[in-house]
Specification:
With 196 residues, the chain is α/β, with parallel strands linked by helices. The chain is 52% helix and 21% strand. The chain contains eight helices and five strands. A five-stranded mixed β-sheet has the order 3-2-1-4-5.
């Protein structure tokens, strides 16, 4: 069985997932998918802290817990289905692209700040995906998105930025369009974790 890595780029309510296998100097995309992390793909669930802002605090906490629980359950289901469908490939590690990484305050302070609400929405889905990887026994490495290309080009892969961009673009050619920025970034994250 061939080993593979999966990279994730998370958005509000969904994530792009790309699975790569080696060799590390010439990886191949095995699969790419969009994961839905909310049971009802509406604004209310995709932006849970925005929705919770209009609620009383106990109701807001209950609502956010429910969205977080659903996101984790959906991510676990996705990971198990993905692994079952990959046949000859076994996903042995994952990479999760991160935002700034600042710790969030308690919910009352989050709901009082529009900027923190946006941050908390994204973190909820990243945390849920990380928890799902843990349930599935999949070690997942967090990589700050703003450091992704610098880490790949200089330290880990040793490929110059222009050449790295061409290599990432070429990874998606065999799949056909679209090969979105979300998929490119998720693929690069998976590639980095394959090397490490």
């Amino acid at each position: 069985m061939l080993t593979a890595a999966v990279g994730f780029r998370v958005h509000s309510g969904w994530a792009a997932a790309v699975v790569l296998c080696g060799p590390v100097d010439a990886p191949v995309v095995v699969d790419r998918r969009k994961i839905q992390l909310v049971k009802t793909f509406t604004y209310a669930y995709r932006q849970p802290y925005h929705t919770a802002k209009e609620m009383q605090c106990p109701d807001a906490i209950k609502f956010i817990r429910g969205v977080r629980s659903d996101a984790k359950r959906l991510a676990v289901s996705f990971l198990r289905s993905l692994q079952a469908e990959l046949g000859d490939f076994k996903i042995v590690r994952g990479a999760l692209l991160l935002a700034s990484g600042h710790a969030l305050p308690e919910i009352e302070k989050i709901l009082a700040s529009h900027a923190l609400i946006h941050t908390a929405d994204g973190e909820l889905f990243r945390d849920s995906l990380r928890a799902a990887c843990d349930v599935c026994g999949l070690p997942v490495e967090g990589i700050r998105e703003k450091e992704l290309f610098a880490a790949a080009s200089s330290k880990t892969l040793g490929i110059q930025p222009a050449a790295l961009n061409r290599r990432i673009l070429a990874l998606g050619k065999a799949l056909g369009p679209p090969w979105s920025q979300d998929e490119k970034f998720a693929a690069l994250a998976a590639w980095l974790t394959l090397v490490r």
